[in-house]
Amino acid sequence: MNSQFTKIVRILLALILIAFGLNKLLPTPFIPLPALPEKAMDFMTSLGETGYVLKLVGVMEIIIGILLILKKWVPFALILLVPISFNILLFHLFLDASGIAGAIVVAVLNGILIYKHWKAYKPLFN
């Protein structure tokens, strides 16, 4: 679990999560938002209009990223990330296929780290 590869994957995923989490929370995003297809834009607009969904996802991404960087509760952080990364993947699969590469990267990095920490999850399946 403490291999150099695992450490690189963990930190890379953490940095991605923190960057995109902060981007959701700041009044002026520092990562420019790409032009989205109409259905994707409608979906994102509806999430934004709730007043809490995108902010909550951003906060969760930052918390998970910090936990990964600090190497605290990593298996827990990875499980928290599963529904987020799955929804990112589904969003791009169904609404914005042009951005699916980033979604695949997040899902694969999450999957690699879950695999590397599988011993922590074994008691859940006994």
Rounded to the nearest angstrom, the distance between the terminal CA atoms is: 22 Å
User: What structural class do helix, strand and pairing data support?
Assistant: mainly alpha
The count of domains is 1
Q: Strand portion, in percent?
A: under 5%
Report helical residue fraction: over 70%
Shape: globular
Our Rg estimate from Cα atoms comes to: 15 Å
Biggest pleated sheet: none
Q: Return residue spans where pLDDT drops below 50 for at least 5 consecutive residues.
A: none
Number of helical elements: 6
Mean pLDDT: 93
H and E order: HHHHHH
Oligomeric state of this protein? single chain
DSSP summary, beta strand count: 0
Description of the structure:
This protein is mainly α and 126 residues long. The protein has one domain. It is built from six helices and no strands. The protein has helices spanning 4-25, 38-49, 53-70, 74-94, 100-116, 118-121. Helix 1 runs antiparallel to helix 3 (53-70). The longest helix is centred in the N-terminal third of the chain and has 22 residues, at 4-25. The chain starts with a helix and ends in a 5-residue tail after the last helix. The mean pLDDT is 93.
Using brief descriptors, characterize the structure shown.
126 residues, mainly alpha, 6 helices, 75% helix, DoxX protein, DoxX, transmembrane helix, transmembrane, membrane
Task: Provide a compact summary of the structure.
The protein is mainly alpha-helical.
